[in-house]
């Protein structure tokens, strides 16, 4: 069976550019603002904010990384003054993570900047194409999860 590869090389080029942009976003600090958060740091801060009982293990599980990876990230965020680690009152073997006021502010400001960029992009997309694009983004996420 012969496949129709019309436009496939253009698709591959666009895909590679998108993946490259994601990799670069993961490794650099946010432009603007002085908190200098990277994408993974902002995601970790959001996870800490959202978890009811944010332990290192719970943060690692939510982020989809190993506990040692989460520990290193959280230690780095603690050195930056973004999180505070403390022993749980009900079980001293458990270390809980909490956002500091600086971490709370940095995470919110980071997402405000990102959401502003996303809003401008979304506004530029013709209304009739938005549902199709949203479906395609979900499909792309599934492909990336399956890689």
From TrEMBL:
Keywords on record: DNA-binding
Zinc as UniProt keyword: no
Organism from which the protein derives: Marinactinospora thermotolerans DSM 45154
GO MF: DNA binding; DNA-binding transcription factor activity
Domain of life: Bacteria
PANTHER family assigned to the protein according to its UniProt record, in alphabetical order: MARR-FAMILY TRANSCRIPTIONAL REGULATOR, TRANSCRIPTIONAL REGULATOR, MARR FAMILY
Domain HTH marR-type residue range list: 1-142
Protein name: DNA-binding transcriptional regulator, MarR family
Entry keyword annotation includes DNA-binding: yes
């Amino acid at each position: 069976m012969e496949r129709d590869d019309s436009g496939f090389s253009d698709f591959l080029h666009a895909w590679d550019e998108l993946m490259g942009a994601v990799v670069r976003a993961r490794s650099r600090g946010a432009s603007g603002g002085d908190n200098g958060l990277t994408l993974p740091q902002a995601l970790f801060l959001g996870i800490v904010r959202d978890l009811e009982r944010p332990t290192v293990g719970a943060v690692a599980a939510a982020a989809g990384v190993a506990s040692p990876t989460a520990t290193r990230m959280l230690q780095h965020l603690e050195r930056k003054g973004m999180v505070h680690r403390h022993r749980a009152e009900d079980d001293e073997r458990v270390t809980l993570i909490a956002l500091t006021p600086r971490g709370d502010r940095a995470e919110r400001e980071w997402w405000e900047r990102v959401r502003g960029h996303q809003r401008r992009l979304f506004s530029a997309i013709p209304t009739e194409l938005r549902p199709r694009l949203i479906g395609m983004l979900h499909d792309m996420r599934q492909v990336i999860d399956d890689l």
